[in-house]
Amino acid sequence: MSLTLMSGVFAHDHQIPVKYTCDGEDVSPPLEWAGIPDNTRSFALVCDDPDAPGGTFQHWAVYDIPPETTFLEEGFSSAGTPGRFPEGANDFGKTAYGGPCPPAGHGAHHYRFRLLALDVDHLDLPGKATMEEVEKTARAHMLAETELVGHYEREG
């Protein structure tokens, strides 16, 4: 079985509910995974928007997730309540989840939640690591990767 990432609130390639966006409560959606590769020692999770007008926009990075962890509950991370694992700084300038918030009238954007199974217990990163630093460092230790894509659009 290969690594898979799912959410109980949206299916792959479907709409992300408003609750998890800047138009709602802006809390992280529930996520769960299965098919963990042997020798996994930790996980990293990143979320970005490749459709942003200025290039890929970084929304969330969580790392040093223990290997026995198989889910992050709804609201694991939000601007006022960072999660219990280290988080990288996103393009909103916060070290917490920043939900979908595309420009109004810009069309549907695709939000890629990517889970990486890693061969190290923790990533050697500075306290204020950026999401880009988290992903680059994680990829150097990656055993497997899976992706869950959700859509969101704001009317103009």
Quickly describe the structure.
With about 160 residues, the chain is mostly beta strands. Helix content is about 5%, strand content about 30%.
Give a structural overview.
By secondary structure, the chain is mainly β. The protein has one domain: Phosphatidylethanolamine-binding Protein, CATH 3.90.280. Helix content is 6%, strand content 31%. The protein contains one helix and eight strands, in the order E-E-E-E-E-E-E-H-E. The strands form two sheets. Strands 2-8-7-4-5 form a five-stranded mixed beta sheet, covered by helices on one side. The longest helix is centred in the last third of the chain and has 9 residues. The chain is globular, with a radius of gyration of 15 Å. It starts with a strand and ends with a strand. The mean pLDDT is 95. InterPro entries: PEBP (IPR008914), PEBP-like_sf (IPR036610), YbhB_YbcL/LppC-like (IPR005247). GO terms for molecular function: protein kinase inhibitor activity. This is YbhB/YbcL family Raf kinase inhibitor-like protein.
Tags for this model:
Phosphatidylethanolamine-binding Protein; five-stranded mixed β-sheet; about 160 residues; mainly beta; 8 strands; three-stranded antiparallel β-sheet
| CATH topology description | Phosphatidylethanolamine-binding Protein
Which regions are unreliable across 5 or more consecutive residues at pLDDT < 50? none
Task: Characterize the largest beta sheet: strand count, sense, and whether it forms a barrel.
Answer: 5 strands, mixed
Mean pLDDT rating:
95
Listing every helix as H and every strand as E from the N terminus to the C terminus, the arrangement reads EEEEEEEHE
Radius of gyration: 15 Å
CATH top level is Alpha Beta
- The CATH homologous superfamily name equals PEBP-like
Pfam families: PBP
Organism: Thiohalorhabdus methylotrophus
Protein name: YbhB/YbcL family Raf kinase inhibitor-like protein
Keywords: Protein kinase inhibitor
